Amino acid sequence: MEIVTKFAEGFMNLFQTGAQTFIGWMTGIVPVVLMLLVLMNTLIAFLGEDKVEQLARLSSKNPVSRYLILPFLSAFMLGNPMCLSMGKFMPEFYKPSYYASTAQFCHTSNGVFPHINPGELFIWLGIATGVEQLGLNSMELAIRYLLVGLVMNFIGGWVTDFTTAFVCKTSGTELSKKVKIHA
């Protein structure tokens, strides 16, 4: 009977721990994510959707703005998966590379900007809890992850340009590299 009792206590403890974690999120991370979403929507409303779209079109002109600046701004302003929609303003040739860079950025920014990819927040929170139990600062890790992610996501986008060029060459496909900005 003692084994059954211990098992039942352990089983209930699992749910109590889950409930405590949930309440911690409701008083900690959820309000932060909500305020970041409000800020994002306010900025887009203030700037105007047409200006945000024009920024995306202009950013497609060079690799730094295509795979570093625009993915950062899109992920911060629109979150995952909406940030991927900014790729529609890219020339056809650069769409795969933009997607590669932006999709990766949604993962590497979660520690600093949890509103970008709230669906995977539990992964970051698990890592952060382990780091904090070691007596280390989880925000330092989050910033390092963000900075390394920015560099690696840029490289990933640019490497995808070469991959796209190779696939186009071997398949005889021609994709446009011209930016078409409509006033």
From TrEMBL:
<feature type="transmembrane region" description="Helical">
    <location>
        <begin position="22"/>
        <end position="47"/>
    </location>
</feature>
<keyword id="KW-1133">Transmembrane helix</keyword>
<keyword id="KW-0472">Membrane</keyword>
<dbReference type="InterPro" id="IPR004699">
    <property type="entry name" value="PTS_IID_sorb"/>
</dbReference>
<protein>
    <submittedName>
        <fullName>PTS system glucitol/sorbitol-specific IIC component</fullName>
    </submittedName>
</protein>
<feature type="transmembrane region" description="Helical">
    <location>
        <begin position="142"/>
        <end position="168"/>
    </location>
</feature>
<keyword id="KW-0812">Transmembrane</keyword>
<dbReference type="Pfam" id="PF03608">
    <property type="entry name" value="EII-GUT"/>
</dbReference>
<feature type="transmembrane region" description="Helical">
    <location>
        <begin position="67"/>
        <end position="87"/>
    </location>
</feature>
